[in-house]
Amino acid sequence: MSRIGKMPIPLSNQAKIEIKDSNIRVSGPKGTLEQRLTDQVTVSEENGLVTVLRIDDSKKAKAQHGLYRMLISNMVDGVTKGFTRKLEIAGVGYRAELKNDLLALTLGYSHMIYFKAPDEIKIEVPDQVTVLVSGIDKALVGQVAAKIRSFRKPEPYRGKGIKYEGEVIRRKEGKAAGK
After folding, report:
1. What is the pTM of this model?
2. What are the distances in angstroms from CA 37 to CA 54, 69, 101, 149?
3. Fewer C-beta within 10 Å: the chain N or C terminus?
4. Disulfide connectivity?
5. Order of all β-strands in the sheet with 9-10
6. 174: burial class by Cβ within 10 Å (0-12, 13-18, 19+)?
7. 1: pLDDT confidence band, cut at 50, 70 and 90?
8. Cα–Cα distance between 42 and 72 in angstroms, integer?
9. CA-CA distance, 106 to 93, in Å (whole number)?
């Protein structure tokens, strides 16, 4: 049995879960998330614990078991606590600002880059070199953060670009001086 899949998911007092046929809905103080389940797993809730069981030991069912357990766990965490991804901008003249729900990025190009986030995602700019992406859907928060990072990925020679908080950029030496 999957090590991740067999662990029960504890429900907090704030989260409520509804299981109907092949759909699961988790609601909490921050919002509501829905997920369609595959026919390879079954979900049950009792005594504040959600358990995910697979229907057989086929390869596909084993693969889906841990996946759906983590998806449901992330849904519970999202509607109660939420998720945040912090991006750091490094480089001379590189900065970010918020203009009318648009993230305006100056990243060394000849033009500014404007990014409109989905409605479910909240973007904050506490200072010019920090961008906070937050929301209740972990996958969507990560996807939006990756999209913002893709506008100017960190480069290994000077370390300029947009990187995740705590991300380590392997630095390269560059060209050696003439001999």
Report:
1. 0.89
2. 11, 11, 34, 31
3. C
4. none
5. 9-10, 49-54, 41-46
6. exposed
7. low
8. 12
9. 7
The stretches of the chain forming alpha helices (DSSP H) are 59-80, 138-150
Q: Which long-range contacts (CB under 8 A, 24 or more apart) does 126-129 make?
A: 128/89, 128/95, 128/96, 128/97, 129/88, 129/89, 129/90, 129/94, 129/95, 129/96
Beta strands in 4-60 (DSSP E): 9-10, 16-20, 23-28, 31-36, 41-46, 49-54
30 close to 80: Cβ distance less than 8 angstroms: yes
Domains and CATH numbers, the chain: 9-80 (3.90.930.12), 83-164 (3.90.930.12)
Residues 127-160 pLDDT 10s: 999 999 999 999 999 999 999 999 999 999 988 9
20: its two tokens: 């109907």
Sheet holding 83-90, edge to edge: 122-127, 130-135, 83-90, 161-164
Antiparallel, parallel or unpaired: β 130-135 and 122-127? antiparallel
